[in-house]
Amino acid sequence: MFSYEQFHDGAFEGLLIEDKTVHVFVSTDRKEQFVLTTSAVAALTAKGILAGNIILDIEMRATEELTLQDIRDVFEYDRSEDEVHAKNALLKAQQSKLSLLAISPSYGGSCIVLAKSVDLVSREEWLRRYSAVQRNATV
Questions:
Q1: Helix 68-75 to helix 83-95 angle, to the nearest 10 degrees?
Q2: What is the C-alpha end-to-end distance of the chain, expressed in Å?
Q3: For residue 54, what pLDDT is reported?
Q4: What letter does residue 13 receive in the DSSP assignment?
Q5: Is residue 139 pLDDT above 90, yes or no?
Q6: Which tens digit of pLDDT belongs to each residue from 16-36?
Q7: Surface-to-core class of residue 38, CB atoms within 10 Å of its CB (0-12 exposed, 13-18 middle, 19+ buried)
Q8: What is the pLDDT of residue 71?
Q9: Among 9, 4, 5, 3, CA closest to 107
Q10: Residue 40: which of 130, 92, 114 has the closest Cα?
Q11: How far is CA 53 from the centre of its chain?
Q12: What CATH number does domain 2-67+100-138 carry, 3.40.1350, 3.20.190, 3.40.50, 2.160.20?
Protein backbone atom coordinates (compact mmCIF):
# COMPACT_ATOMS: atom_id res chain seq x y z
CA MET A 1 0.00 0.00 0.00
CA PHE A 2 1.19 3.49 -0.83
CA SER A 3 -0.04 6.55 1.04
CA TYR A 4 -0.03 10.07 -0.39
CA GLU A 5 0.73 11.64 3.01
CA GLN A 6 1.20 15.14 1.59
CA PHE A 7 -2.59 15.39 1.16
CA HIS A 8 -3.51 14.88 4.84
CA ASP A 9 -5.69 17.88 5.79
CA GLY A 10 -5.74 18.94 2.14
CA ALA A 11 -8.87 19.15 0.01
CA PHE A 12 -10.74 16.76 -2.27
CA GLU A 13 -11.89 19.31 -4.84
CA GLY A 14 -13.84 17.27 -7.39
CA LEU A 15 -13.96 14.84 -10.27
CA LEU A 16 -13.95 14.99 -14.04
CA ILE A 17 -15.25 11.77 -15.60
CA GLU A 18 -14.46 11.10 -19.26
CA ASP A 19 -15.52 7.66 -20.43
CA LYS A 20 -13.07 5.24 -18.69
CA THR A 21 -10.80 8.01 -17.37
CA VAL A 22 -11.44 9.82 -14.10
CA HIS A 23 -9.51 12.91 -13.04
CA VAL A 24 -9.55 13.45 -9.25
CA PHE A 25 -8.70 17.00 -8.16
CA VAL A 26 -6.93 17.34 -4.80
CA SER A 27 -4.77 19.87 -3.00
CA THR A 28 -2.44 19.91 -0.03
CA ASP A 29 -3.10 21.90 3.12
CA ARG A 30 -0.74 24.54 1.61
CA LYS A 31 -3.09 24.88 -1.41
CA GLU A 32 -0.70 23.10 -3.80
CA GLN A 33 -3.01 21.66 -6.45
CA PHE A 34 -2.71 18.22 -8.08
CA VAL A 35 -4.68 15.80 -10.24
CA LEU A 36 -4.81 12.03 -9.88
CA THR A 37 -5.68 10.66 -13.32
CA THR A 38 -7.02 7.12 -13.29
CA SER A 39 -7.18 5.19 -16.57
CA ALA A 40 -9.20 2.15 -17.66
CA VAL A 41 -11.57 2.64 -14.72
CA ALA A 42 -13.59 -0.46 -13.85
CA ALA A 43 -15.52 1.06 -10.94
CA LEU A 44 -15.93 4.38 -9.16
CA THR A 45 -17.77 5.32 -5.98
CA ALA A 46 -17.85 8.90 -4.68
CA LYS A 47 -20.00 9.92 -1.71
CA GLY A 48 -20.69 12.87 0.52
CA ILE A 49 -18.99 15.52 -1.61
CA LEU A 50 -19.48 18.88 0.08
CA ALA A 51 -17.97 22.33 -0.13
CA GLY A 52 -14.71 22.20 1.79
CA ASN A 53 -13.99 18.44 1.69
CA ILE A 54 -11.00 17.69 3.93
CA ILE A 55 -8.81 14.66 3.23
CA LEU A 56 -7.79 12.30 6.01
CA ASP A 57 -5.68 10.18 3.68
CA ILE A 58 -5.21 8.95 0.13
CA GLU A 59 -4.10 5.36 -0.31
CA MET A 60 -3.17 3.28 -3.31
CA ARG A 61 -3.38 -0.52 -3.25
CA ALA A 62 -1.66 -2.62 -5.89
CA THR A 63 -3.32 -5.64 -7.49
CA GLU A 64 -1.83 -8.10 -5.04
CA GLU A 65 -3.06 -6.01 -2.08
CA LEU A 66 -6.72 -5.87 -3.14
CA THR A 67 -9.13 -7.38 -0.62
CA LEU A 68 -12.69 -8.57 -0.73
CA GLN A 69 -13.62 -5.54 1.41
CA ASP A 70 -12.07 -3.19 -1.18
CA ILE A 71 -14.29 -4.78 -3.83
CA ARG A 72 -17.37 -4.55 -1.59
CA ASP A 73 -16.63 -0.87 -1.00
CA VAL A 74 -16.03 0.19 -4.61
CA PHE A 75 -18.98 -1.79 -6.01
CA GLU A 76 -21.11 -0.97 -2.94
CA TYR A 77 -21.92 -4.61 -2.23
CA ASP A 78 -23.83 -5.13 1.00
CA ARG A 79 -22.32 -7.71 3.36
CA SER A 80 -25.55 -9.70 3.19
CA GLU A 81 -25.40 -9.67 -0.60
CA ASP A 82 -24.28 -12.77 -2.46
CA GLU A 83 -20.55 -13.21 -1.82
CA VAL A 84 -20.16 -14.85 -5.23
CA HIS A 85 -20.46 -11.44 -6.97
CA ALA A 86 -17.79 -9.87 -4.76
CA LYS A 87 -15.42 -12.83 -5.14
CA ASN A 88 -15.88 -12.86 -8.92
CA ALA A 89 -15.24 -9.11 -9.09
CA LEU A 90 -12.07 -9.51 -6.99
CA LEU A 91 -10.81 -12.29 -9.26
CA LYS A 92 -11.54 -10.20 -12.36
CA ALA A 93 -9.75 -7.17 -10.85
CA GLN A 94 -6.71 -9.30 -10.05
CA GLN A 95 -6.67 -10.86 -13.54
CA SER A 96 -6.93 -7.38 -15.08
CA LYS A 97 -4.11 -6.12 -12.81
CA LEU A 98 -6.21 -3.28 -11.42
CA SER A 99 -5.25 -1.02 -8.51
CA LEU A 100 -7.42 0.79 -5.99
CA LEU A 101 -7.22 4.51 -5.18
CA ALA A 102 -9.08 5.46 -1.98
CA ILE A 103 -9.66 8.95 -0.57
CA SER A 104 -10.86 8.90 3.02
CA PRO A 105 -12.30 12.11 4.46
CA SER A 106 -11.87 13.97 7.70
CA TYR A 107 -14.87 15.96 6.49
CA GLY A 108 -17.02 15.61 3.41
CA GLY A 109 -16.44 13.39 0.41
CA SER A 110 -14.87 10.02 -0.08
CA CYS A 111 -13.83 8.46 -3.36
CA ILE A 112 -12.78 4.96 -4.40
CA VAL A 113 -11.54 4.16 -7.90
CA LEU A 114 -10.65 0.73 -9.26
CA ALA A 115 -8.47 1.31 -12.33
CA LYS A 116 -5.60 0.07 -14.46
CA SER A 117 -3.31 3.00 -13.65
CA VAL A 118 -3.03 6.14 -11.55
CA ASP A 119 -0.90 9.14 -12.45
CA LEU A 120 -0.27 12.07 -10.07
CA VAL A 121 0.67 15.40 -11.66
CA SER A 122 0.55 19.04 -10.64
CA ARG A 123 -2.56 20.92 -11.71
CA GLU A 124 -0.40 23.08 -14.00
CA GLU A 125 1.02 20.01 -15.75
CA TRP A 126 -2.46 18.47 -16.03
CA LEU A 127 -3.80 21.68 -17.61
CA ARG A 128 -0.98 21.62 -20.19
CA ARG A 129 -1.63 17.96 -21.03
CA TYR A 130 -5.40 18.31 -21.01
CA SER A 131 -5.34 21.43 -23.19
CA ALA A 132 -3.08 19.69 -25.71
CA VAL A 133 -5.41 16.66 -25.84
CA GLN A 134 -8.45 18.90 -26.35
CA ARG A 135 -6.71 20.85 -29.13
CA ASN A 136 -5.74 17.60 -30.89
CA ALA A 137 -9.27 16.23 -30.55
CA THR A 138 -10.74 19.23 -32.42
CA VAL A 139 -8.28 19.02 -35.31
A1: 100
A2: 41
A3: 97
A4: E
A5: no
A6: 999 999 999 999 999 999 999
A7: buried
A8: 95
A9: 9
A10: 114
A11: 15
A12: 3.20.190
